[in-house]
Amino acid sequence: MLWLVWRQHRWQLLAVTALVAAYCGYLLWVVRAAPEAVRACGPVDPDCTQLNLLNARWTNAVFVGNLLPLAVGVFWGAPLLAREVEQGTIRLAFTQSVSRRRWLTVKLGVLAGVAVLLGLAVGASVSWSIGRLGAFSSPAFGNDLLFSQAGMMPAATWVLALVAGVALGAFLRRLMPAVAATVVALSLVFAGLVALRPHLIPPVDRIAVTQEQFVGDPGPEAIESGWIYRVSYLDRDGHELSSAAAGRLCADPANSSPTPECVDRLGLRQRVVYQPAARYVWFQLVEGGLLLLVSAGLLLAVRRRTAAVV
Amino acid sequence: MTNAVETIRLGRRYGRTWALHDCALSIPQGRVVALVGPNGAGKSTLLNLVAGLVRPSAGTVLRFGEPTRDDRASLRRFAYMAQDSALYPGFTGADLLTFGRRLNPGWDDELARDRLARLRIPLDRRMRQLSGGQRAQCALVLALAKRPDLLLLDEPLASLDPLARHDVMAVLMEMVALHGTTIILSSHIIADLVETCDWLVAVNRGRVQISGEIEELLAGHAVVSGPLQARALLPDRLPVVTETAGGRQAQLLTRTGAETFGPAWSTRPPTLDELVRGYLGTPEATALPGPTSVVR
Predict the structure, then answer these.
(1) Which of A64, A254, B107, B244 is least enclosed, having the fewest CB within 10 Å?
(2) Closest chain A C-alpha to B79 CA, distance in angstroms
């Protein structure tokens, strides 16, 4: 069976592996001079051209990286059953002395295993390059495009992409419709995840009384407190004001948020709705678990489908 | 000895239409079965059901007395060749042999190599580069070298030239003689089957019309011909399968042995072709399970 998996899927495996190698290589190449650029952009000598250029390139690369699961779904997943059905070779495959269950298990096992490895390679490259950019990178936690590319997230996404392609192929039974459906479905899943992500864990709603507890608004300090959904101010009567409204109240139109002096004068309290930075790993686990759970459900459907019909 | 194939009230429905309905068959081991019927009669559906590729909508199908199961022990006992003899287009002949060897514990590599060599099919040629006939031969090699106890062949002769047909039939006979393999092959061309097959199954409009040993079937039927104006003199209860009138002559295919009906009428045993055409032209006629016990 292993021979068959290699013989039938070698070009797809090699192509996607090459794609991932090129992607990871490019990411690492972009951030190779990052620490130097970060130093150059320090407070002493604010020459940030190189860092800006580098940051823009890197952000674009990560954006493109979000398309990689599509390659897995389209090249590995969709053809697995759809092409066999379309070619009629499924009858050949299912009348050898190998049970359908084993056929499916070995094929999906190998492909999912490789998808996890490649996904982890992508996640590691992205996470590592975030570290190289230091404070100048937007953090993975709270960034829609970066979150799905960092750490263990690509591995889970790729498994889902593979299984979704296989499932759509199993039900649509023709390659091109399966490919098209996989692209649409995975795009919708990605958009859905972005919309769902803030609600996975209820946020912390904190009211800070003294200015030491305030988070900067906005600024690098805000980033350190995690993923901030909303910052607002409460006046003495308990009315909620947006940052801009509070700034106007201070009669200081130059500021989009109130100055410390003004906060004292008006007795403002700060309200922050946010996810603490320590929850990053929990968000990864919850979303990754969700993706794997959906994958398992789809797998079950595929197995029942292949057991019933050809 | 258990039957190679047994079906009990077997049916398969696609949407609202029954591709095969209420099918009862018992095929003993070691037979070479000719499965005949017009296009869309349900031949492929029947073979797919026996191969376990399609699940029955009704009834059961048994291979060697056991229900079709999706496990190695059940799968290795039969081989199946699809009508389109679909093969992986990118596979070379060598890949095909590796495919067979890796996926089948009883694989007979020598048989496969010998046959491909004899057919002059190069091992380094890809399947998509071969002709339709060569592809069919490759698919057959894959089925033969699995060394099954039951060989299910859906139109194996359709894309072959007459010489190759003859050769394929000879190979099949060899399989039966050497290993006692049971073979079920479907075909439109009855002439190809006459010499080799010893069991006939006729399927028509999703129903099995005839199933039985060819010799018994032929002995149990008669072609009765005589003048048209003497038609009324034949007994009313004569079990007529089909009746044709050409000019002043009437010809009847009847489910009777070698009886005689007076001087005006001549009686002779039918040819296989006449028998098959007689039944397939009259879809409501049946002779099941054997010619001795007539249904209806």
Answers:
(1) A254
(2) 7
pLDDT at B208: 92
Long-range Cβ contact pairs of A194-203 (< 8 A, separation 24 or more): A194/A144, A197/A144, A197/A147, A197/A283, A197/A287, A198/A229, A200/A283, A200/A286, A200/A287, A200/A290, A201/A275, A201/A279, A201/A282, A201/A283, A201/A286, A203/A229, A203/A273, A203/A274, A203/A275
A182, A73 contact by CB (below 8 A): yes
Reported pTM: 0.89
**β-strand partners of B203:** B208
ipTM for the whole complex: 0.88
Per-domain boundaries in chain B: 5-215, 220-294
pLDDT (tens digit per residue) in B86-96:
999 999 999 99
pLDDT band per the 50, 70, 90 thresholds, residue A98 = very high
Fold of the CATH domain B5-215: Rossmann fold (3.40.50)
Of the candidates B84, B95, B103, which has its C-beta nearest A88's C-beta?
B84
Is B79's CB within 8 Å of A95's CB? Answer: yes
pLDDT bin (cut points 50, 70, 90) of residue A48 is confident
